[in-house]
Specification:
The protein has a domain at 16-93. The chain is built from three helices and no strands. It has helices spanning 3-7, 18-91, 95-118.
Length: 119
């Protein structure tokens, strides 16, 4: 038994011609090329979709910054309005305070009148 018989135990099987082998290799290469071109098409499509997503995320980021600035401005305005209202309330007299002041004033006037009448 020779080395060729050990590698290929069936002597009836003939070695294919070089032309047939090259044709098979060419077919395989064509299949690989077709799959690679399909892959490139998908990569290009994904690349454009990634660009769209980046644009949308930038828009969302800008909207979030604007919303935060609006919220800060609104909070500042509400704080100023509340402080203004409190200052105004502390500067004006409530009806209860006015009533007590009138009663104390009338009592003081009555006390002075009683003092003068007895004198």
């Amino acid at each position: 038994m020779t080395i060729a018989n050990k590698v290929n135990p069936e002597p009836t099987q003939t070695i294919e011609s070089t032309r047939v082998q090259l044709t098979r290799i060419e077919g395989t290469l064509n299949l690989v090329a077709d799959r690679v071109s399909g892959l490139m098409t998908r990569v290009d499509r994904h690349d454009s979709e990634i660009g769209i997503l980046k644009s949308q995320s930038q828009t969302l980021r800008e909207q979030a910054v604007a919303r935060d600035a609006t919220a800060v401005a609104l909070a500042t305005a509400l704080k100023d309005a509340d402080e203004s209202r409190r200052n105004k309330d502390s500067q004006t007299w409530s009806p209860f305070a006015k009533t007590i002041t009138v009663i104390v004033a009338l009592a003081g006037i009555a006390g002075v009148l009683v003092y003068w009448l007895k004198a």
